[in-house]
Amino acid sequence: MNDILEHAGPAPKPHGDLVRLTGVHKYYGGGLSAVHALDGINLQVGMAEMVAICGPAGSGKTTLLNLIGMLEYANEGSVVIANLLIARLPDQARADLRNEMMGFVFQAFTLIPVLTARENVLLPLMLRGRLEHKELQAAHARADELLGQLGLATHANTYPPRLDASQSQRVAIARALLAKPRLVLADEPTSRLDSACIRLVMDLFTQQQHEYGTAFIVSTRDQRQLSRVTRTLQLHDGRLHAVLADAGREPFRVKL
Ligand SMILES: Nc1ncnc2c1ncn2[C@@H]1O[C@H](COP(=O)(O)OP(=O)(O)OP(=O)(O)O)[C@@H](O)[C@H]1O
Question: Nearest C-alpha to atom 12 of ligand 1 is from which residue?
């Protein structure tokens, strides 16, 4: 088993691209009812970046995250993740890559109702196979630490049906971060949170970015998140067409 919980050293130097999309198009359906969900996307994201994708409902944010997460595939153009051309990878290799380097926060939270909050957070590591006793202890400690940082210390043993939407969303965020992924894809991860909880989440994202070099691609319609990001991109009708803001800490360049 990968010692992903052990490598808490200094953040890797930001170099190379984690994500490179070139001329990407995505269509749903065909004929007169076809939807051109992504229309010629060019995007590069490097390690330790925090990129916000803003845009109105239906602009293509979820589709873009799903393509980067290899949950859907482009009709045209290339998607390169960690220097691997995704279209050429066998299914198992895609699944392994996804498992080993990515954390997801889905809009629907997707918590398992018969597992406690802590067990839900631990799930990504459990699915990787049998853990040694020491690894299991470290994973438990990290799960509890993440839950604590997100204001859920007293809910570790609570089952999802007894959690409200804000608490469920924070459990889903802790789950995405547990294995110290290289890249977190988060689809409107603070949509159910109040300002205080948004601050907790953004503090945690920033900490993970600095400690582990984690890159974040976050779709949002909430301006309150944007002060922490390294780049803000606007998606409109499937086109990435403007950089809205720059927090002044931008270590990478974007080519739209
Ligand atoms: N599975 C699908 N089948 C058909 N059309 C789809 C599918 N998924 C998305 N679309 C369409 O693609 C376009 C982009 O949708 P997408 O969900 O990516 O936008 P979004 O910006 O994430 O919207 P929201 O903020 O409402 O989640 C929309 O017109 C949507 O209706």
Answer: 37
